[in-house]
Amino acid sequence: MSKFVIGIGSQRAGSTLLHRILDECTSIYMNPVKELHYFDTLYGVRHQSILTEFSRTQFNRDLKKIVDADSFGFLNKRFKNHLRTNYLLSTHPVTQIDYLDLFRPNLMGNPLLGEITPEYMILPEEGIQHMRREVGKDAKIILLARDPVSRLISSFKLSKAYGRKAADSSSEKFNDELTSIVENEGDWLRHQDELNDYDTSLKKYKKHFNNVLFLYYKDLFKSPKKTHAALQEFLETDVSIEKYTNVVKKKVNSLEATGGVSKPLRKMLEERYHRQTNFLKEHFEREVL
Fold first, then answer.
1. Nearest-angstrom CA–CA distance, 144 and 86
2. Confidence at residue 9, expressed as pLDDT on a 0 to 100 scale
3. Considering the entire predicted model, what is its pTM?
4. Which residues are registered as beta bridge partners of 212?
């Protein structure tokens, strides 16, 4: 049976970069659909309709690539895995899908399989137990953490970008909108609170899995040698330092330049996430920014 590497969090904390590192710098077969959203949909963290619609969009994009192609060199097993996974997730509820089927036709011949879905971080206890049954208690679990205030601001920027509002949003408007959300404490903010609760997530996963690595977001690219060594030791497989260095030179998926927050709002957020920030400081034994 193949062994698994599962990235579990957190949203806006470097999951895209980690996926590239594991995919391009190791022998791990990373599912080409970066976020499968299998277990979080199965246990109600994400609604089935959201996964279905997203997967349908990806599946149609794959079909268009085939229809528009002049040559078909890209039609390899990896592309077939991408196409097949999106087909399954767009046409079947996750309750009718075997998790391992999402890696076919690359299941055989790959001793190490992996995926990254940030929302797995906030799975309920029974969801984590289900994951353990599927991938085994010796699976390698990687939890990514980021300063809670910076992560929340980045998440809000992303939500505005998805709404096609980011490009014309002034700093003042961005600040006012986020201030209103924080003051009103709606569902979105409560979801962000869960994604900032690294202490709870780390305890739950360590309870059910033998191997859990806790990584800090900026260490992926600010401390490449240290992080490379930590990954190689944890994964028990070779991680190419040359490829790793090249990957992290191009930090991906960044929205740092979009919008801004005032000092009063930042103070409000710092007070809200004081406990979570202190946990990270104590764990990584340095200032978390």
1. 25
2. 82
3. 0.91
4. 141
Residues contacting residue 284 through CB under 8 Å, at least 6 positions apart: 216
C-alpha 250/C-alpha 86 separation (Å) is 27
- Whole-angstrom CA distances from 7 to 21, 87, 88, 141, 143 are 12, 23, 21, 6, 6
From CA 142, how far away is CA 10, in angstroms rounded?
A: 10
pLDDT at 174: 85
Residue 34 phi/psi, 5° resolution? -55, -45
In the structure, what pLDDT confidence band is assigned to residue 12 with cuts at 50, 70 and 90? confident
pLDDT at residue 159 in the model: 80
Sole residue written with tokens 């890209």: 74
Q: What is the pLDDT of residues 178-214, one digit of tens each?
A: 999 999 989 999 999 999 999 999 999 999 999 999 9
58: Cβ contacts below 8 Å, ≥ 6 apart: 33, 82, 86, 90
